[in-house]
Structures are given as structure tokens and as C-alpha cells.
Amino acid sequence: MGLLSRKPKPDRVQNGGPPAPAAEQLEQIEEQAPQEAPEVREEKPDSASTAEQGGSDPAVSGAEEAAGNGSPERAERHDLTLREASEGAEHAAGNDEDIRMRPEDLITPQRRRPGDPEESERPARRAEVIAFANQKGGVAKTTTTLNLAVAFKESGHDVLAIDLDPQGNLTMSQGIDPDKVEKSLFDVLVHDVPIREVIHEREIDIAVASIDLAGAEIAMSMKIGRERSLEKALQAVEGDYDFICIDTPPSLGLLTVNALTAADKVIVPVQCEYLSMRGLVQLQNTLKMIQENLNPDVKIEGILPTMLDARTVHAKEAVEILEENFGELVFKSRIRKAIKFAEAPVRGSSVLKYDPDGNAANYYRELAKEVLTNGSS
């Protein structure tokens, strides 16, 4: 035997020695205690194996045990908990198809902002949006926007005019002071104010401008989707009108880009002078970029010769140059010079209201017929 092996200790009881005091106490406690079955902990079988073996549900057994122990309240609460759990499981199993997300919902979740209308509440589109654009100023854009819109109204159409020029000439032409309006298109484009809040009722409905629009391009510089701000604003009212006419500033900046992005058609007023016609080339280049990147459906409805003085040879030559280069795009209607065009805005009205029977009013009535005819053909 090795040096590190232990010798077995002698059993004191077997060797006749006195039993240990702890052993005596243990024997006495066992003799006095009632004979009970030792508690044996077993792993709980699952419900499936229990059912197969014909055993009872452990939860039900727990309820019976609680009742047997003289606690009816506990048993009742236990039964209620079991029923609720059972009903919840059945409900979850029955509605599994309802709560399960579809793959397309996970890939392209749709978010609605507070205040956005439901799809069923969105108005059906019926308005034709016409932008009046030319980067050169003083070519009768505002005069044409207002008087053509009023001519549409005389023909029985619902019309909205949009004053997108910071100078606010269209707003003033309807007797509204741009410096005194509480809200303008600046608030619509920059702060997403609903466009209905800036619409005033005059001869036609007009969304007013203010001098604040001069800073709109800077204020919108960090805005995502800034080129579509006007287009999104018009969605709320496009179901209320047949025509929406947009007067643009004499530039090809962000405000004009917004107008061209929202428009279906563009009418280009051109003064019958050489310098005015040069702006057409740049406008065409801008429009091409809009078509490629923002609004593929926008097109030039027509080029309108304005401020025509038929007594001069230069004016006649300018019209000939337009027709040679743009052909059918040039309107047959001609807007000739007339003093009534300068007098009407002073009275805060269109020329059709200021001098309804004069030649100036008839120029735009003829233009309205031509636009309506081309639009229906």
C-alpha cells in the first residue's frame, strides 16, 4: 500500500463503540416524525407527452391541488388565468394571418404624415396646370396670366391663379396689397402651409405673393424635394379647378423650376423684339432639363407674341422670325399694345372687367378659345 493511501476508518457501531450523539438525535427525530413519502422532483413533461400517456395537465392538477388544500379562491383565480391564456392562444393562432407582415411591407414601408389625407379622400385630378414663363421681364407674363385666367372663367371654368413672382404684380392686379397679407406662397413653399390658407377670392381665386418670396430660394436650399414643393401643395386643390395658371418671376431660378415641375403646359409670352426672343433658347434648355429629371410630361403649349405694334417693321419681322423657327408653336392670336392693359391694374381688375367690350379684352378671349381648342383636340 502506498504512502499516500488512506486507511478505512473503523465503524464505531460495528466495533461495539458508543454511537455518535448526532446519530442518536437523527434516529429519535425519524421515530417521532410521521412516515411521508419523500419528495421527488421530476421534470415536467410537455403537454403532448402528457396527453399521450393519459396523464393530467400539470396546470389542472395544480388547480385541483389548490382546491384540495382548502383554498377555493386560489383555485378560482388559477382557473381564470388558464381560461384567459387558452383564449389568448386561440386568438393569436386565429389572427396569425392578419398580423403577419407581407414581404412588400417590410421592403417598402409606407409612412403617412399627420394630416395627410387617405387615398380615398384625395380629390380626383381635373385641373390643367399652365405655367407662364420667360426669363426676360416686361413681356406681359402677368398681364397674360391674369387676363387669360379671367377669360377661362368667362367660359364657365373654375380657375386658380398662382402668383409666384416676389414683385407681387399679379396680386396687386386684383386689388390685394402684397405687403399686408398674413400668409403668402412663401409660407406654402418653405413652411408647408396648406395652399388654401393663401387663396383669396376675387375675379378669380388667387394664391397671393409677398416680398418674402425673394428669399424663398435661400430658405428652400436645404429642403429635400424642394423642386416639387409647389406640385405637392397643389395636390390639395387640383380637384377644385379646371385650370391653374402660374405667373413666374423673370428668371430661371428655383421658383420657376417649381412652376415648370408642377405644370402640364407652358405658355411663353414673347415681346415682338429681338432681345426678348433670345430668351427662348435658354428657356428651351431649362425645359429640357426639367423633362429629363423632374417632369417628363411638361411641354410648350405655345409661344404668344405680345405687345405687338403693327405699325413698325421690326415687330413684323420679329413675328416672322418666330414663325420660321417655331412653326405651329406660335399662337395665331396676337396681343397688341393697348393703353387699357396699363390702366386696368390701377383699378385692381383685369382688362376684361375694366373694359369688357374693348379690343384688349377681345385679344385674350380669342387666345382662350385657341387654348381651349388645342387642349380638346
Strand content: 5-15%
**What's the architecture of one domain in CATH terms?**
3-Layer(aba) Sandwich
H/E series: HHHHHHEHEHHEEHHEHEHEHHHH
Shape: globular
Uncertain ranges: 1-7, 9-19, 36-45, 47-56, 58-68, 103-113
Structural class: alpha/beta
Strand sequence of the main sheet, in spatial order?
Answer: 3-4-2-5-1-6-7
DSSP helix fraction: 40-55%
User: Roughly how many Å is the radius of gyration?
Assistant: 43 Å
Overall pLDDT confidence: 79
CATH superfamily of one domain: P-loop containing nucleotide triphosphate hydrolases
User: How many strands appear in the DSSP assignment?
Assistant: 7
- In DSSP terms, counting alpha (H) and pi (I) runs of 4 or more, how many helices? 17
CATH top level of one domain? Alpha Beta
Distance from N terminus to C terminus (CA atoms, Å) equals: 120 Å
Q: State the major sheet.
A: 7 strands, mixed
Which fold name corresponds to the CATH topology of one domain? Rossmann fold
